[in-house]
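Could you show me just one protein sequence together with its fold in token form as a worked example?
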Amino acid sequence: MKKSIAVQRNSMCRAIRQRLLTACQFCASLIMALTLALGSQASFAEASLQERVRKNLSALTPHWLGSPDTRSYAKLIVARYQQQPQHAESIGDLLLDNPWPQYSAMFSQYIQYRLLADSGYWCANAHSDVYPELAAYLLWLQGDLINTEVTLGGMATEVCAARPVAVAALPTSSVNSAKLLTALEPALRRFQQRFGLDVNGTLDQASVAALRQGAAWAAQRLRINLLRMAELDAALGQRYLIANIPAFEVSVYERYEEVLRLKAIVGKSSRQTPQFSSELSSLVLNPGWNIPPKIVYRDLIPKQIKQSDYLSARNIAVYADWSSQNRIDPASIDWLALRGNFPYRMKQAPGPSNALGKVKFVTPNNRAIYLHDTNARNLFDRSNRALSSGCVRLQQPERLARYVLASQYTDAEIDELLNSNITRTVKVRETLPVHYVYWTSWVDNDGILQHRQDIYGLDSQSHDSRPLTPRSTLAFETVQPRHPTVTKSS
């Protein structure tokens, strides 16, 4: 019995001594940690940031890195921004944590092209000519050329599959250049599609110019457009319409997924479509067109002077003023004498020749800008569709009409409305947020990076030095028309 008690006492003493030792070790470790933290607080914060970035990088591996050391990759990212703490602290969140998938995908592309530019693998104007071997390499770097499609001239495919090489190390020509160029056709078509070029599968002048831009150009482009997208983030809802001006496209999204896409015609460079937000509140079926004075002066008067029946041939009537219904005979007006203020009102009647087509989508704003049909449908075949006076023309407007009216009419009722020749305004029960945006680069619904021409030169004018942040807000602008009877068209 005594022996059992002694054993228990010794066991308790050992346990107490062990706990005291553990406590002392913990205190010593805590003191050391506090000392280190005081001496290297910045390094600790940087390491934490690197770890957060590293975890997020697992889903963002650029194809040309194969299986990268994500820890080293994270260090590269953080090192670039370590002198900008406000910027750096948001990097980990921006990679994957932003709830807008398109924005997160854009940011991952930005990081990849930034690192590609810094690596020296792809610089603009590295050669005076984009020969087939160089074209193959640049197409491969961007993911348009699949390794199994061709061998890259004098450079073994296995080398490319492992890690990119400097452009300067590429062979400048080979006996198989013509054969290689033929084999590149599928990759060139993918590249041309992504850049909004004529898709012909040849190494034409426009494709060469796009290939020569360089990774630094792409990274800067992505940064500019990320800042533009971040401004919209707060305004996006469950459903919204994006009219992307440089893309010549209008898309409708539900919960960030594209459900409808239409070709569009936007304002020419001299009559640019502005960037703003509104909402689609109503439709006008078989609309008449009250022609704005600017279009009257710029377009119609010169044409009427050259051709005396120009207005009447297009069912355009002239009225005494904006409130009058008294029509004026165009032949009684001295068109050459008109200067300054235009005293009359011009209105084009509904019908086949009407510039607004069969339907107009009202998005209230003080710029007289809206979406509408057109009577010049052949223009949608062009690749560059900056052709209007500011409004956005749609190739298949009836599809958008069916979408916005689906909750308040049956299919048969919508058919009846669209087929009628009666002018009618239909209020939209569930208004649709509309954003007229200027995105020259974006990631589409399939995760493919798209680039388009900077048709208004806004990218080159951008000197925005703001850091990229997960959330940036822009007031959701809904403004009333400047004059309810004035409507602009293209």
